[in-house]
Design a protein that fits this description.
The chain has 514 residues and is mainly beta. The protein has four helices and 33 strands. The chain has one domain: Neuraminidase. 10% of the residues lie in helices and 33% in strands. α1 packs parallel to α4. It is globular. Keywords: Iron, Membrane, Repeat, Transmembrane, Transmembrane helix. It comes from Aspergillus sclerotiicarbonarius (strain CBS 121057 / IBT 28362).
Length: 514
């Protein structure tokens, strides 16, 4: 009865505000890409008109943007996926994608409404449109839910990583004290359903920075930078300088630090970033966007590139002293190494909606692969390879396909191991699924009909004890999903060569041409 009531309440809330047609802004969501779909979970939403609905409301649903369906220059978004009421709605968490087994793992975050529940690991099965809890392994004992840490997935090894983050009243039941930044490094093995909570690089707590993966060394490396740290016993929060880059070598399970040079970004937190690399992996280029200023200020609307292994920061956008539209708590998703979709963010000094026709999505052409060498451009599904842009080539040498000549920091590597690691490149092996994966059309996909969703085998000891809740949720929300399906087909695609396409009403002001 309580579950039914909760589902009814959730359905009522969703009917009050349509997540697509009433959209104004979103922020602090967790996102992941699997099979040409960008999934969007949790976070906060502002509805249109903002003057009438100023509250930051919890996003109670799971949505996705189809990268192959155009909506005025951006992927079309859909709201017809299942999310039962007992699945937490969190902000500042992470979705670890298992792209081979078609599963999303939800970890961390602060509860957007109500008191936090004890930590439980949830998964979303993309094939069957169902949410389930994983069976707790003995290694899960003592794991707590952290928020706003640096997280990343190493897909060829099916490992999810999470560094630092906050423990607080929003993430831990009965916390009852000031937030604490963690210094720990969490690893989740998706195939074995096991957790490892190990020490980070030192005992300093860190949060609100980013972590990305690059295929360097023997099994890849993790790169962390930015955000906040608490180096003193009294818990005083200070900035983590963008000059100090933290590196984790996966093969050797060792941490390192490296000083960066160049145009060092101003201190900031709650920004987002994505990594790509030259065809020959002679340079790994991490694009960092926006963020909230620290210790004070409204934030930034800019793009910096950290080029590795030279460890050089390059200011890429804007090229003039333009404050733009500062915002923070957005998400960055690199698509095919060539484009990066920046979604959402909260704007401290603006009350305008964030391109509501595109649901707050903006696209960066990471290699400026367009006639006018523009950085902000409509999303193009056919751009599937990365070209190193001129601004990076002018610093590290080489060409659009690689051949970088600056292969070490100007001040040298801080540890001799790093010089060895960056002389190697990692070519991941193909991982096979360990559960049956239906061929296209052989399983009835949830986006076409969720009333008769089957429950399939789930890896990692996942249990299916919530089938009834899923079916009940499907019945309650069916009418809303049908409206979403009808509405989402209403925008005709733009012509491929159409000129002077301008971004619709936007707080970001990033226009493009065709």
């Amino acid at each position: 009865q309580r579950l039914l009531l909760a589902l009814l309440v959730r359905g009522t809330v969703q009917e009050q505000h349509d997540p697509l047609s009433d959209f104004c802004r979103r922020f602090a969501q967790q996102t992941a890409v699997v099979d040409r779909k960008l999934y969007i979970d949790g976070g906060y939403v502002n509805y249109n008109p903002l003057s009438q609905y100023p509250a930051n409301e919890s996003n109670n649903g799971l949505l996705y943007a189809d990268l192959d369906v155009d909506n005025i220059g951006m992927p079309q978004e859909y709201d017809n996926l299942t999310k039962p009421a007992d699945v937490p709605d969190v902000n500042g968490g992470i979705l670890w994608p298992d792209t081979v087994n078609k599963i999303l793992y939800l970890y961390g975050g602060e509860f957007s409404q109500g008191s936090p529940q004890p930590f439980t690991s949830w998964i979303y099965d993309i094939i069957y449109n169902t949410w389930n809890k994983t069976t707790p392994d003995a290694t899960q004992a003592g794991i707590q839910r952290a928020s706003y840490g640096g997280g990343v997935t190493v897909e060829d090894r099916a490992l999810g990583y999470y560094y630092g983050g906050w423990l607080s009243n929003g993430s831990v039941p009965n916390w009852g004290s000031e937030p604490i930044a963690l210094s720990t490094f969490l690893t989740y093995d998706m195939l074995q359903n096991t957790w490892t909570n190990s020490s980070g690089i030192d005992s300093v707590g860190r949060a609100e920075g980013v972590m990305v993966y690059i295929p360097a060394s023997d099994r890849g490396m993790l790169v962390y930078f930015g955000g906040l740290q608490t180096p003193n016993p009294n818990g005083t929060v200070v900035a983590q300088s963008f000059e100090d880059i933290l590196l984790y070598d996966i093969a050797n399970s060792k941490w390192y630090t490296q000083k960066a040079t160049g145009q060092i970004p101003e201190n900031r937190r709650r920004f987002c970033a994505g990594a790509t690399w030259a065809e020959d992996k002679s340079s790994y280029n991490i694009y960092s966007y926006g963020g909230l200023a620290f210790p004070e200020g409204v934030g930034y609307d800019d793009i910096y590139i950290l080029s590795i292994p030279s460890f050089t920061w390059i200011k890429w956008y804007p090229t003039t002293a333009d404050p733009g539209f500062p915002h923070h708590s957005m998400s960055c998703n690199v698509i095919d190494g060539a484009q990066m979709i920046i979604m959402g963010g909260t704007f401290p000094n603006s009350t305008a909606c964030d391109v509501p026709q595109n649901y707050g999505m903006h696209n960066v052409d990471l290699g400026e692969q367009n006639a006018e060498h523009k950085k902000w451009l409509r999303f193009r599904p056919n751009i599937t390879t990365y070209e190193v842009p001129a601004e990076i080539i002018s610093v590290v040498g080489g060409s659009a396909t690689g051949g970088a000549t600056l292969k070490a920091p100007k001040t040298g590597f801080d540890n001799a191991d790093l010089q060895t690691y960056f002389q190697r490149v990692y070519s991941p092996t193909t991982r096979l699924p360990n559960r049956p994966i239906p061929t296209q059309g052989s399983a009835k996909n949830s986006t076409s009909d969720t009333r008769s969703t089957p429950v399939g085998a789930i890896v990692g000891g996942v249990v299916g004890g919530f089938i009834g809740a899923v079916i009940l949720a499907g019945i309650l929300f069916w009418g809303l999903r049908e409206r979403g399906k009808d509405r989402s087909d209403g925008n005709p695609p733009i012509e491929e060569q159409q000129a002077d396409i301008k971004l619709p009403e936007s707080v970001g002001g990033h226009g493009w041409t065709g």
